[in-house]
Amino acid sequence: MLTALIRHRAGLLVGAGLLLAVLLALAVVAFGGGADVVVYNGRSQYGDEAAFKSFEDATGKQLELRGGTAPELFERLRSEGSETPADLLVTTDLANLWRAKEAGLLAPVSTPALERQVPEQWRDPDGDWWGLSLRIRTPMRSTSVDPKLVQSYEDLGDPRWKGELCLRTSNNEYNQSLVADMLAKRGPEKTRALLESWMANEPRILGSDVDVLEAIASGRCMVGLTNHYYLARELKDDPDFPVAPAWPDQDGAGAHTNLSCVGLVKGAEHRADAIALMEHLTAPEAQRAIAANGEFPANPKVPPAEHIRDWGDVKLDPIDVEQAGRLLPDAVALMQEVGWK
Q1: pLDDT over threshold 50, residue 19
Q2: E strands in the chain
Q3: Whole-model pTM?
Q4: Fewer Cβ in 10 A, N or C end of the chain?
């Protein structure tokens, strides 16, 4: 009987030991210890996991991708400080990556491969961030609308579009960066006048860029404002989708262009592997996977997706990274003041 009791207690100890081992293993995974590179990934909703998987396949390294919006990832990284498990920060919006740099959360990187693959205009002069893709925020029009009627951002404020304009909510980071960039380049008075003209048209305020495009396609709106790649996706699935880009200011500054970028987190535990992943993401194979999503690759050797190849000649107006980043709070305040919901 005593022998049975000892065996029973031993079994409990073994079981407890196994449970503890499992819990420790889960904790390791949860805090990134089981991965070779931990990525705070703002691109998790863009369907280009192939760009990351090809790195795993080529190197045998294990990646952990943690998703979130650019503002969410910035706040998470800032709150974690030196205890963060993140090695890389990937965002879909350059102004928020600039905020991470200003907060001292990023470390400079420069390698021959990165310099070869990313042109100077699409990378930080100090090496704190490197472009992955270009994203144009442009007016959109129904294909039934004369192209001559929509040739600038100002044209969205033409009274002819009263009740016919669709916009995404003002809490969207792409809209906020656009307005911040306008504040930097046009000044507060002209930017306010522009936004007030949009609001005077009593726009439908919708929850996503896709909603805006679908509203235009269905005739609920005639014009709108979205990132270009959302339309690229629609046209890939349906070449007859009745919406067209209205590239703005092609005789002037060009179309507002934001960036999806990657930066090395300061104090990254897996620095060498993280830098290797940065090089991979800007190399042709991964850039082709990103281009398949409809974005323009940052690597000039990789063309846009075939069905939007003719969009590659659009005149671009790169975001003023430093000034737009500083003016994000002013942009949000102005959007609220003019009644952009």
Answers
A1: no
A2: 37-41, 63-67, 88-91, 106-107, 130-142, 165-168, 204-206, 223-227, 243-245, 255-265, 296-297, 316-318
A3: 0.86
A4: N
